[in-house]
Amino acid sequence: MAEMEILGAKISDYDMVETVCSAAALIDVGRAAVARGADDEPVAHQIVTLNAEILYKAQSNPKLLEVINQAELVTPDGSGIVMAAQKLCNRQIERVTGIDLMLELCRQSAACGWQIYLLGAKPGVAEAAAQNLHSQYGANICGWHDGYFGEDEQAWIIGEINEKKPDILFVGLGAPRQEFWISENRSRLRVPLLIGVGGCFDVISGNLKRAPLFFQRMGLEWLWRLIKEPWRIGRMLALPKFVLLVNQEQRAKKRQAAANQPQPAARLQQQNGASGKKEKKLPQ
Ligand code: UDP
User: Fold this and answer.
1) Which tens digit of pLDDT belongs to each residue from 119-161?
2) I need a labelling partner for 91 at 20 to 30 A (CA). Which of 41, 60, 116, 283 fits?
3) Best residue among 54, 57, 154, 173 to mutate for probing ligand 1, ranked by most atoms within 8 Å of CB
């Protein structure tokens, strides 16, 4: 995988097909570790679907940036990240959103024999999402639990997940809470693949409507969410700040590149040195 570094985060340039292949490979590695049965051998791998809001937050939260960079795979979720890849790394990449990745993995799960567990959202939502994933995508859902649990219930929930032996655990506690939760608990989870998916269960259960295709294609999903959930305005202020930061970084990169360019005299000397030609006299 060619990784890009954007504002300190290492992000994959995989498209959806490559991301699903990579996820399948991580599941295979995790399954092999589960089969060996050594309790101290790590099993779980983390995928982060990163958007501009969370990457902006990570600029002032080193622990969050560390969690992002410790994940085995970070996908570009959101048009802000795609824009940043173009401006800072000169790369055209495809968005790989949490919900699209989740639906694609569910679609493949029957053929690949993957079992899936859903953790998150309000009581009843994960169950309704599980039913839809099974009926519409043929997904094998081995369990679910809502995302409103206390510290005292955590050990029981992890025990219940391990007992159901899923291959994939989708965690919908909202970002970045779910990324921290996964990172803190991955050593206790005997699950090959852990993915934070935010409010996806609300959409898949039918409780919340996803942005129409027009908004998705124009990179305006954030606007749709803002119209539907105006209370998000505070969080969404991170988006223009992210754009400003990317522009600032782009200017700094350009200045750095210009400063690294050899001056004409030095360039000529370098060329002479490199080609082994006789040194030319510089015009006085
Ligand atoms: N949520 C949860 N437990 C909590 C807080 C939130 O399970 O303690 C769920 C909430 O019900 C919703 C999701 O986390 O389903 C957060 O959705 P949101 O759209 O805010 O997350 P984002 O996609 O922006 O990360």
Assistant:
1) 999 999 999 999 999 999 999 999 999 999 999 999 999 999 9
2) 60
3) 173
Nearest CA to ligand 1 atom 20: 174
CA dihedral 148, 204, 107, 169 (to 10 degrees): -10
Q: How many other C-beta atoms can be found within 10 angstroms of the C-beta atom of residue 57? A: 16
pLDDT tier at 278 (50, 70, 90 boundaries)?
Answer: very low
Question: What does DSSP say about strands 140-145 and 168-172: parallel, antiparallel, or unpaired?
Answer: unpaired
Q: Residue 120: which region, alpha, beta or left (left: phi > 0; alpha: psi -120 to 50)?
A: left
pLDDT digits (tens, 9 = 90+) for 87-98: 999 999 999 999
Cα of 197 vs centre of ligand 1, distance in Å, is 9
For residues 43 and 35, give the distance between their C-alpha atoms in angstroms, rounded to a whole number: 10
Mean pLDDT of the chain: 93
What is the pTM (predicted TM-score) of this model? 0.90
Q: How far, in Å, from the CA of 121 to the mean position of ligand 1?
A: 6
Q: Which of 141, 149, 144 is nearest to 115 (CA)?
A: 141
The reply to whether ligand 1 has any atom less than 6 angstroms from the CB of 120 is yes
Q: What is the number of other CB atoms lying within 10 angstroms of the CB of residue 56?
A: 23
Q: Is the CB of 280 under 6 A from ligand 1?
A: no
Beta-carbon contacts of residue 100 (< 8 Å; ≥ 6 apart): 16
Q: Whose CA is nearest to atom 6 of ligand 1?
A: 173
pLDDT at 39: 81
What single letter denotes the amino acid at residue 238? A
148 alpha carbon – ligand 1 mean position (Å): 10
